[in-house]
Amino acid sequence: MKRFRFRLEAVRTLREVAERGQREAFGAAQQRLATAEAAVQAAATARRELFDRVAGTRSGVFRPSEQTAGLEALRQAAQQEASAEKIRQEAASAREKARETWLEARRALQIIERLEEKARAEHREAADKAEQSLLDELASIGAARATPSSFGAS
Q: How far apart are CA 72 and CA 77, in angstroms?
């Protein structure tokens, strides 16, 4: 019997490469999301610390210039936090898009893998049938040799 050869080997290779690339893109998108989430956390922490500092100055002597500067710093910190949150949301949507693309590439690869498994099973079944046929033929040849021939007996 001939050795198994999958006809769609080149297609499988291309889909493996595409799936690997999409998986790496998903990993990179996930990393960007983690970085963006860390930036949101840092901005929120910075804003809370600044708020506590500004609130702490209210308990002492009221200085309008310090109060104005503190409120302006709080406004900027809130803007930075909002900007970081917007970047996080964009990174989350990019990650979901990359995830969907990766899953689509994975499904395409799995289709080819199932076709290969099916082709291997069919090849194995054909090889088993050919082997059994050969064994049956050898058994019938052996049986024919073992029985005395009626031609030579007179």
A: 9
